[in-house]
Amino acid sequence: MDAIRTYDISKTYRDKQVLDGVSITVRQGDIYGLVGSNGAGKTTLMRIILGIAAPTDGKVEIFESDDLPNERRKIGALVEAPAINKRMTAFENMKVAAEALGVRNDAQLKRLLQHMNLEPENPKKVANFSLGMKQRLGLAMAMIGNPQILILDEPTNGLDPTGIVEIRDLIRQLNESYGVTVLISSHLLSELGKLATVYGILKDGKLIKELREEDIALLAKPYIKLTVTDCPRTMSLLKDNGYEAMAHSLNTVHVTTDSAHIAEVINMLSSNGVGILGVEQREGDLESEFIGLMGGVPHEKI
User: Fold this and answer.
1) Which residue of 39, 170, 201, 259 pairs with 208 in a disulfide if CB–CB is 3.0 to 4.6 A?
2) How far is the C-alpha of 276 from the C-alpha of 273, rounded, in Å?
């Protein structure tokens, strides 16, 4: 079942288009990593899904329903800075957030804090918390009401390495042990690569590519990069002949095979009328592929 689906979401602020026809599919049980540089539109898309902002065009479905006010009650979120009162303790903040949601279960709130490695009886005010503690409190507040979906905008931003590992492990546990579907954004592939099961790559407000487990496995293998005159025909011929392949642009195809089969692939395509403009042998390098898709310059292996 699809937990979140967006259809051609566009958003314009004044004269600036922030999102341009973005369609993503987050399936139930996914940890969906929304990857993109700062300003790519990640936060805006999350705000639209949550109903904080309205799309200029397009629509959102949650659990395959367009009854958004009802379905959004199943979502917990940590977008931008958590709504924390720094003059209160962690438990006092939990009480205020729970009251707003109509939840009156102190035992549950204490269990959530303990799960996030925070002590419910700690008298320390949040103003004296570390950034990592504040982020863990934000996660605990997002989990009030036992949401089925968790939306997290750059939850590890600014944390030290220990804090990053703590937040990452907590998110994984929520997904694996409690079945929570997660939509998480970051501009750091190195972090999402240790957590996400699916990726959506945003660049300049557009979804460049959506990659699932089978696509990720394909990118990690050695491959031949082909520049061709007819990408659709190339893809068809390769698949008909039993090759794993992925189109990367209008004229670039990656074929998962080793150097021993380069001549075989080129001869097959050429004999079927496909012009070969360039051939490169590459080692599988997931990070370089993502950087290239996001518009950066992939580093070469030495």
Assistant:
1) 201
2) 9
Could you tell me if 152 and 240 lie in one domain?
A: no
pLDDT digits (tens, 9 = 90+) for 157-172: 888 888 888 889 999 9
> What's this model's pTM, rounded to 2 decimal places?
0.76
Last residue of a domain, one of 211, 243, 262: 211
* Higher per-residue confidence, 194 vs 5: 5
Q: What is the C-alpha to C-alpha distance for residues 180 and 77, in angstroms, rounded to an integer?
A: 12
Q: What is the pLDDT of residues 121-163, one digit of tens each?
A: 999 999 999 988 998 999 999 999 899 999 999 888 888 888 8
Whether 43 and 138 map to the same domain: the answer is yes
**Side-chain half-sphere CA neighbours of 187 within 13 A:** 12
Alpha-carbon distance 200 to 280, whole Å? 26
Name the domain count of the chain.
Answer: 2
Cα dihedral 62, 140, 212, 20 sign: positive
Taking alpha carbons only, the member of 106, 81, 79 closest to residue 92 is 106
DSSP code of residue 150: E
> Residue 235 is part of which domain span?
221-284
